[in-house]
Amino acid sequence: MTTLKSKLKEDLTTAMKARDELTSSTLRLTLTAITKEEVSGKTSRELSDDEVQKVIAKEAKKRREAAEAFAQGGRTEQAERERVEGELLDAYLPKQLSDDELDVIVGQAVQEAKSAGAEGPRAMGAVMKIVNPKVAGLADGGRVAAAVKKLLAG
After folding, report:
1. How many C-alpha atoms does 15 have within 13 Å on its Cβ side?
2. Angle at 55 between CA 58 and CA 12, to 5 degrees
3. Could you tell me the pTM of the whole model?
4. pLDDT band at residue 118, thresholds of 50, 70 and 90?
């Protein structure tokens, strides 16, 4: 068992003993998503820590999107619960890059793409190919794309 998955299970046990319903339900759902990912496909396999992190990131993103949708629908109590669940899952992910750090990495990638001959808004794909491996798991794809568009636009 991967160390991240075992940490989730240990934290689930602790939350259950403390009768922390919010934490235990969030961790249960996340562990279920991990198990579902492990058994999908033709053969079951054990996920690596990186793959487990991707599943956790996907679950956290779902919570943020749900919180936004509930807030727009006027269901503030449910929106707050989803937001707290997302923050709980974020604790298991690596620290996200700040906007300044992301801009530096994107700026370097834009220069690299321009030296390879890519110019203007059409260079988006080339720049994203350079940036994505560097920021994988450290920045949301939407933030990265927005930063690339901003720098390519001028």
Report:
1. 16
2. 110
3. 0.75
4. low
